Amino acid sequence: MRPLGVTLVGAYQILRGALGLLFGLSLLLFTGLAGKLASLASEGNAVGEILHNFGRMAGLGVIAFAILHILAGFGLLKMQNWGRLLTLLLSALGLVMLLPLLVATLGLPLIFAWSALTEMRKSACSSITSSTSKMLRSALRKSDITMSGFSLLANSSAT
User: How do residues 59-115 score in pLDDT, each as one tens digit?
Assistant: First the structure.
């Protein structure tokens, strides 16, 4: 009996692969059309050929990853060890490929958020330090009074 989590992840991998396959095929179709339109507009310029080749390579890359996702999903559903390893590998590759996008979109706001958090921490520390020093000063003044009274009592008993 297969665990429910493995079944869900396997079905997700197959669905992800099917959607990736559709996206790759549409990428091949539409970049081919865009390349033809660009070559008509540029009249012999290399832009159309470059666009067509880039679209073909991107579409084939997406289709290759989609087929790997479908294979990983079927491997998980058959409870094969290679399916589990392929799923882990594809997930790791997906995270690595997503990392530059996250840095590009969230990098600058994260830097500003970090500087704002640093400033907030500094102001909080300075306010805590000032309130703590006020409390310590008042406590020390009270202890000076009692300590001086204690020392007076100690000196009078010694004589």
Answer: 999 999 999 999 999 999 999 999 999 999 998 998 888 877 777 777 666 666 666
Q: Is residue 107 part of a domain?
A: no
Contact predicate 90/65, CB 8 Å: yes
pLDDT at res. 112? 65
Q: 30 in a domain, yes or no?
A: yes
Look at residue 123 and tell me if it is in a domain. Answer: no
Query: Is pTM, for the whole model, over 0.90?
Result: no
How far apart (Å, rounded) are the C-alpha atoms in residues 132 and 120? 18
Whether the Cβ atoms of residue 56 and residue 24 lie closer than 8 Å to each other: no
| Residue 49: both structure tokens together | 């050929």
Q: What are the CA-CA distances from residue 129 to residues 90, 121, 136 (Å)?
A: 50, 12, 10
Q: How many domains does the chain have?
A: 1
Residue 86 in any domain: the answer is no
Amino acid identity of residue 83, one-letter, is G
Which domain covers residue 69, as residue numbers? Answer: 1-79
